[in-house]
TrEMBL record:
The keyword Transmembrane applies. InterPro entries: DUF1145 (IPR009525). Keywords: Membrane, Transmembrane, Transmembrane helix. Pfam families: DUF1145. The lineage of its organism: Bacteria, Pseudomonadati, Pseudomonadota, Gammaproteobacteria, Alteromonadales. It comes from the Bacteria. It comes from Shewanella benthica KT99. The chain crosses the membrane at residues 12-33. This is Uncharacterized protein.
Length: 39
């Protein structure tokens, strides 16, 4: 059995991981459209 505290921590960890992954995908997509170096 998992306590409520552990469940909240796990949910927070999962949400944080999803956010970081989504942010990384957005940066990659932006780099494809408009690269940092060059014009």
């Amino acid at each position: 059995m998992q306590t409520d505290k552990q469940m909240k921590f796990i949910n927070f960890f999962i949400i944080t991981g999803k956010t970081i992954t989504l942010f990384a995908w957005l940066i990659m997509a932006y780099n494809l459209v408009q690269p940092f170096e060059g014009t």
